[in-house]
Write a structure and sequence with these properties.
301 residues, mainly alpha, globular
């Protein structure tokens, strides 16, 4: 009994730390998105996305100087590179999107990411997904259409960029789960930062504008630093805790995105966005609950 109690306590503590890391990462990502939207008013989204990677890149270079290239040792080089490409691509696409749509709307649509994680978990990892969860996922995507409202006067095509970014983000989550079983956190962080920075550097000379000393430099430094911390926290969270436990925490992005959008841009979601978000939240929680209980639930449910 003492051993069981000790193991259970360790399990709870590990999950708590994972949730804390993930929640902090979501808070920081919302701040990063807000700063990125501000910067897109003066800089090309490519330069903003590249700047977003600077903090992580500098940190990695410092670690490489002190610890050497041994931190890059991995049995899954191409998976690590692919994850880095997804990180750079998803950040760039999302920044393009928020330069044209309100942050809260973009965040609400990004809620489809947990559904993509469940779908990819079934297709890539072979996880069982029953009829009820497939139904919940379908309802969630219908709710996404309620938010986007194609064909209506309020429709903004740029919102579909968020869906693409959410898919790329979900792919990163799946890859993080695969890589966490064999690679250290620092290895995944290093490949992510190096690959994403290299990818975004290619088009940079064509859109570059030198920042002005003062507010612009301060915003870019804040963007890079907060993005680096957020990325590390999410990776660490996935290393400590199952993605199914962390998935509901993703929805805190709407809270922070709405607050930041209101404080900085004076933008609030309309009633249809709130309605669609509520449906996505409810179905998302149901999907998480079903995934949590799938091992004990009868097959076919």
């Amino acid at each position: 009994m003492p051993k069981f109690t000790s193991n259970f306590g360790q399990f709870l503590n590990q999950n708590f730390m994972g949730i804390l890391y993930f929640a902090s990462g979501m808070f920081l990502f919302a701040a990063v998105d807000t700063i990125a939207k501000v910067l897109t008013e003066s800089f090309h989204p490519v330069q903003v996305a590249w700047s977003r990677q600077l903090g992580l890149l500098f940190g990695i270079l410092i670690v490489l100087i002190f610890k050497g290239v041994t931190i890059l040792q991995t049995e899954h080089v191409w998976l690590q590179v692919f994850r880095g490409c997804l990180a750079g691509t998803s950040a760039l696409i999302f920044i393009f999107a928020i330069s044209m749509v309100p942050i809260a709307d973009a965040v609400a649509v990004s809620f489809v990411a947990p559904f993509f994680v469940t779908i990819l978990g079934a297709l890539v990892l072979g996880e069982y997904v029953g009829v009820r969860r497939w139904t919940a996922i379908a309802i969630g995507f219908v709710a996404c259409l309620i938010i986007i409202r194609p064909g209506f006067s309020s429709f903004q095509p740029a919102v579909f960029l968020v869906v693409i970014a959410a898919l790329a983000y979900a792919c990163r989550q799946i890859l993080s789960r695969i890589l966490s079983s064999s690679d250290r956190t620092i290895t995944t962080v290093a490949y992510t930062g190096l690959t994403a920075s290299f990818l975004l550097s290619a088009p940079l000379p064509f859109v570059w504008r030198t920042p002005v000393w003062g507010v612009e430099i301060l915003l870019i430094v804040a963007l890079a630093t907060l993005a680096a911390f957020a990325e590390i926290m999410v990776i660490k969270a996935l290393e400590l805790t199952q993605a199914v436990v962390l998935a509901p925490i993703h929805y805190t992005l709407l809270i922070w995105g709405t607050i930041y959008g209101w404080l900085v841009f004076g933008q609030l979601p309309d009633e249809w966005t709130w309605f669609g978000s509520a449906i996505i939240f409810a179905t998302g929680i149901y999907v998480v609950w079903r995934e949590w209980t799938r091992k004990t639930a009868p097959q076919g449910q």
